Amino acid sequence: MEKRTLFLILLILGTAFWGISFPVTKMAIGHGQPLLFLCYRFLLATVVLSVIFWKHVKELNVTTIKTGTGLAVSLVLGIYLQTLGITHTSASQCSFVAGITVVIIPVMKLIIYRKAAPLKIWIAACAALIGLFVISVTNRLSIGTGDLYTIIGAFCFAVYLIHVEKKSKEGDIVPTIVPMFATCAILTFLLASFQKDTVWIPDTQTFWFGIIFCALFSTAYMYTISNIAQKYISAERVSIIYLFEPVFGAFAAHFMLGEAITSRLLIGGGLIFTATLISELKWRMPAQLAITSLSKQKKA
Length: 300
Known about the structure:
Radius of gyration: 20 Å
Number of strands: 0
Distance between the termini: 33 Å
Helix content: over 70%
Largest sheet: none
């Protein structure tokens, strides 16, 4: 099996963990303490990954720590805003709205790096954007507070994915994973410390269950696989693969929280899922087919 195919499968499995993490997080934090939740989530992920990647931890240097710290800033902002969004809207809707990253990445690459994505990526991104519009925009053409937090978080997450792709092409990104999560833990701890109403040891089982699930599966597993995968898969494609997440998230929220699966959610989700398929199809434009045909004729 090709490494690209293997990581594609592992990423889709990870999106299932991410999808489930939306209702799990909503149950864990209720309507408060998202920073504390993220602090413990990153802390546990750092401990687990330090054991797994102990060889790299022993060989840490200024360069890897600096790279990991740089990646952590945009990651923390993206996840925090997304977590904040969950407290203001349904878990299923938040998971779908987070998918706007798929549109942001090719646009940012075009503006910053003057690098245009393939046509099929733009078609997929537009289809995903229409699906997102169907799901999140109300009859009054307004966007809810939770959706707004999630959309801003998606911009931060897009920056994170683009930086990961760049760093993974420059060399082995695995040594930066532990410093990145350690920085995330420190940043969220400092932010939580400034909150006057922080209860450092919550006495609810759902909170700690959420920490364990999200730290091990949604954080340690998924972000590690994602970072390594971007050596073989572009940021645009990774963001589109991530759109499997809201499909899993909608059904997980339905069974775990009793959230309704509305027609708007199904139509918008169907468009987003179609966008995922379009991005992975191997198809050529008529002009490309004609050129290929002519070249074959000349060789014959």
